[in-house]
Amino acid sequence: MDKNLLVKxxxxxALAAVYIFLVSQIMLNGQKMFGNSNSILGPFVILLLFSLxxxxxxxxxxxxxxxLFFDNKKAKGIQAAIYSVGWLGVYTIIGLFVLAIMK
Length: 103
Prior knowledge:
- The chain is an all-alpha fold.
- It has one domain (3-102).
- 87% of the residues lie in helices and 0% in strands.
- It is built from four helices and no strands.
- The protein has helices at 3-28, 30-34, 41-70, 74-102.
- The protein is flat.
């Protein structure tokens, strides 16, 4: 087990989780923050936010894997991808556990 790679993937996926949380708060409180807008701009901005989120989270979760893979460190790249998905699974389980407790 490569501890350096484990720490890097933990850091990157933790940043992704924080980003996802912040975007979820914008979506949850959007009406309070921006009002009830029926303009054409609302759906456009939501799709922009969705596209930005896909790029940011994709880069944070799979960026290290892609860099390693294209540096001809294919085994480490695959290992990094597995670690990243594993960390996201851990965060998801923790989130579900917290939701169950708060019920």
